Amino acid sequence: MGNLNHQQLADGLDHIQDSPSNAGLIEMLVLRPGVDERTVVDRAEFAVGAGLVGDNYVARGSDRTEDGQAHHEAQVTIMNSRVLNLISEGDRDRWPLAGDQILVDMDLSRSNLPTGTRLSLGTVMLEVSAKPHTGCAKFAQRFGPDAAKWINSDAELRLRGINAMVITAGTCSVGDVITKL
Questions:
Q1: Nearest C-alpha neighbor of 31 from the set 90, 77, 91
Q2: Is the pLDDT of residue 165 over 80?
Q3: Is the separation of the CB atoms in 98 and 79 below 8 Å?
Q4: Contacts of 171 (CB under 8 A, 6+ apart)
Q5: Torsion angle of alpha carbons 131, 41, 84, 48, nearest 10°?
Q6: What are the domain boundaries of the chain?
Q7: Helix and strand element counts for the chain (H, E)
Q8: Mean pLDDT of the chain, nearest integer
Q9: What is the pLDDT of residue 71?
Q10: Residue 124 contacts residue 166 (beta carbons within 8 Å)
Q11: Would you place residue 57 in the very low, low, confident or very high pLDDT band (cuts 50, 70, 90)?
């Protein structure tokens, strides 16, 4: 399977922009127990300050904080499943490679989900953080340089997805609805 070029990616934009704006479907939940490790789960537990239970968010820390600790605004990452479906050429087995924990069919744009927007999923409440979620070298390696450039090309659309913080601990499952509050 090859990687899509910029034009092929741009051709899929209309379908992505038709994503539901107020409520969408959780299509996949992914734990990252270690570096480059992925575990797809049907149900996930979230904890305030720790993100997704079983994920390496806290242990991994961040090279973008002064003390190397995990960035409090990047507890959970969410990506639009239509974007991921396009760049993976419909291969759901490749979705976990993106490194995002929650894959949803929902409009994640700034105009739809500005910083501070609260999201309800299962018994969990998340809050959209101000910290941008951008594609890295690993993303480019896995999905191609054109895909990495493309997902980072429009800060308004947030094609790469969003970062969020856990406000209320709880659980959610694949197939649950994620709702903008």
A1: 77
A2: yes
A3: yes
A4: 43, 44, 45, 46, 122, 123, 124
A5: -10
A6: 6-43+55-69+80-117+134-169
A7: 6, 11
A8: 90
A9: 57
A10: yes
A11: low
Is the Cβ–Cβ distance between 87 and 154 less than 8 Å?
no
Residue type, 28: M
Question: Is the per-residue pLDDT at 59 higher than 60?
Answer: no
Distances from the Cα of 63 to the Cα of 130, 136, 158, angstroms: 18, 13, 22
Residue 60 belongs to what H/E stretch?
Answer: helix 57-60
Determine phi and psi for 37, rounding to 5 degrees: -105, 140
**32 and 98 in contact (C-beta within 8 Å)?**
no
pLDDT band at 2 (very low <50, low <70, confident <90, very high): low
Between 67 and 37, name the one with better pLDDT.
37
User: If you write DSSP's letter for every residue of 141-168 in order, what string do you get?
Assistant: HHH-HHHHHHHTS-TTTTTT-EEEEEEE
Tokens of 110: 């700034």
pLDDT value at 127 more than 90: yes
